[in-house]
Amino acid sequence: MCLLQNTSKIALLVSMSKASRKFRVPDPLADLYDFANTLDLRSFQHRGVRMQPSDEIESPPALGTWLIDHRLAKPGAMMQPEHLERAHALRTQIRALLEKEPAARRTDRAAIAGFNAIAQSFPLVVQLGGPETAALATVRADALSGLSVVVSQLYDGARNGTLDRLKMCDAAECKRVFYDRSKPGTRRWCQSTMCGNRMKTRAYRERQRA
User: Fold this and answer.
1) pTM, two decimal places
2) Fewer CB within 10 Å of terminal CB in the chain, N or C?
3) Rounded to an integer, what distance in angstroms lies between the CA atom of residue 200 and that of residue 105?
4) H-type helices in the chain, by residue range?
5) What share of residues in the chain are helix, strand, coil (percent, to 5)?
6) 19 and 2 in contact (C-beta within 8 Å)?
7) How is domain 18-209 classified at the CATH fold level?
8) How many CB atoms lie within 10 A of CB 204?
């Protein structure tokens, strides 16, 4: 799946979150994983606690904090409302793409067109850094330029196949993005001990009622 026209690999400085480290998300996909999960739609009850949906980048200052924490913006970077709008639009299209089955991501015209449209706001260029060395670099020069790293991670993952392992939980009350480390790559839920067990129990009860 070629979503961008550039063909070189970008050099990244990845600052993995606690979640990406805990679930052993590969470094080259860590920022993409974390960015997609800044929107938390979980609304189920787990161990007696009701999960509450939240947005980690719900305001310009919150977006700035997230980017700085991930080393995608310099300390003190000021975010404007239009930056937040662009970031939300990028996240929406990334999540729409990851919600599709890996095979469908290559054929779903709406999902591909949606991502390609917002990706134009985060253009990348090839830069040579030495003998036989090339990397993708962001064209943006404002405080939001760091999100070009997220776009480049999706691009690299699509090229090398690792993006197929980045999926969205099948549970309607979860929709958490996760990295599928199973050997066959057929996981449907973010965690078998959480959403997996809950959905299997629900399916069993429905069969019993039927």
Assistant:
1) 0.84
2) C
3) 26
4) 18-22, 30-36, 60-69, 81-98, 109-119, 147-160, 197-209
5) 45, 15, 45
6) no
7) Jann2411-like fold (1.10.3300)
8) 10
Check: CB of residue 154 under 8 Å from CB of residue 12: no
The four Cα atoms 77, 138, 94, 21 give a dihedral, to 10 degrees, of -70
Are the CB atoms for 77 and 60 separated by under 8 Å? Answer: no
- Using DSSP's 3-state secondary structure scheme, residue 112 falls into helix
Average pLDDT over the chain reads: 86
Q: Where are the beta strands (DSSP E) in 47-201?
A: 49-50, 54-55, 124-130, 133-138, 166-168, 177-179
Paired strand residues for 168: 177
pLDDT of 12 over the 60 cut: no
Location of structure tokens 């961008």: 4
Which amino acid would we find at residue 155? Y
CA nearest 28: which of 17, 38, 13? 13
